[in-house]
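Submission sheet (multi-component)
Chains listed below:
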Amino acid sequence: MPASYAYLGPEGTFTEVALRTLPEAATRELVPMVSVPAALDAVRNGEAEAAFVPIENSVEGGITTTLDELVAGEPLMIYREVLLSITFALLVRPDTKLSEIKTVTAHPAAQPQVRNWMKANLPDVVWESAASNADGARLVQEGRYDAAFAGEFAAAKYGLVPLETGIHDAENAQTRFVLVGRPARPAAPTGADKTSIVLWQRDDHPGGLRDLLGEFAVRGVNLMLLQSRPTGAGIGNYCFCIDAEGHISDRRVAETLMGLKRICLQVRFLGSYPRAGVRAEDVPTALPGTSDDEFVKASDWVARCQDGRF
Ligand SMILES: O=C(O)C(=O)Cc1ccccc1
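Outcome: structure written.
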């Protein structure tokens, strides 16, 4: 049996479409799962080599189920990311008219991307969340709802037809997906990489978040995502999910992680991996004083000072 990748299913999700853009997916068995936690659990318990799940979209920010799963439980690591442009189709059973639609369903992350369209075209329908957009289509096929927002490609799989296509409140809406596996050595740096971590503050004090961010700022490390998530320990208790530019093998990133490790209660490393759609030559050069070479020279100089050989 080939190694398998679990993904947010059923067949016909945007997640599946994004996964199939990865060359390595062609040599794996792709196994649809009912939810993001189920896909990640399949990795944790060794049933799947990796899981492919949505993590962020450009309209609403982080997909909280995924972030919360990566923040807690047995540690996992991100190895790849994929960006997919998303527009929705309104899928119905054949012969359904727009005026007959009373109920509509889709994944919760779809709602902010179709809200204005719904207000204009389906003002009085009842929205209910589905486990994924393709699962919504499946529920329409079963007769549980009148319509589903999903990828147009899901229609044929579930015996539905697109009543409307190209639905998107925001131009260029994109969703980011990640391939997640058990912890192992990160892939070698490509020159256009990203590092994901989770931080827990040691204590609550004025400027606490600024102290964390200062560790990135003084080493010239750019942030790409900052999302707070409740720790569950009471109102006001948050951890921070952060994506930073660069690879853990870059000295400025490694030194930032060391700085954070010293001042945080806990740091969880979620991986260093290639940025989707960005070439190394398009990444700005390191700010003055933050290149690998400058870090190495500075640390050699301190060693010489400690030896009295400066
Ligand atoms: O992959 C899907 O189809 C999902 O249900 C997740 C999702 C939700 C909204 C936009 C893109 C992906």
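Remark: The first helix runs from residue 14 to 19.
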